[in-house]
Amino acid sequence: MFRSLPSQRDLEDIRKEARELLHDLRRWDAAALRRHYSLDREAGKFPARLADAQYIVAREYGYRSWQRLISARGKLPQE
Questions:
Q1: What would the pLDDT profile of 30-42 be if each residue is shown by its tens digit?
Q2: Which residue did the predictor score with more confidence, 1 or 60?
Q3: Distance between alpha carbon 25 and the CA centroid of its chain, in Å?
Q4: I need a labelling partner for 51 at 20 to 30 A (CA). Which of 6, 22, 45, 61 fits?
């Protein structure tokens, strides 16, 4: 199930979404864990990382990876 990525969403909004998801995963939030488990059956066996949250967000928007999502937006995120 993919969500549509609104054209007005900027990279900072998308990065914030991933960080919030990471926070929820680390709190063992049921909805966040379901999102993770739907993409990775090993979810919950290891501590969640930012890369996990980024992957989930990218996949939900229909991209194969976080890098592809960022590239589609035309620039790389500043860490």
A1: 999 999 888 888 7
A2: 60
A3: 11
A4: 6
Please count the CA atoms within 13 angstroms of the CA of 1 that sit on its side-chain side.
4
* Within a domain: 28: yes
Residue 18 lies in a domain: yes
Q: Write out the residue range of the structural domain in which residue 59 sits.
A: 11-72
- State the total domains in the chain: 1
pTM (2 decimals)?
A: 0.81
Asked whether the beta carbons of 35 and 29 are under 8 A apart, the reply is: no
Is 1 within the bounds of a domain?
Answer: no
In a domain, 23, yes or no: yes
User: What are the pLDDT digits (tens) for 48-79?
Assistant: 999 999 999 999 999 999 999 988 876 544 44
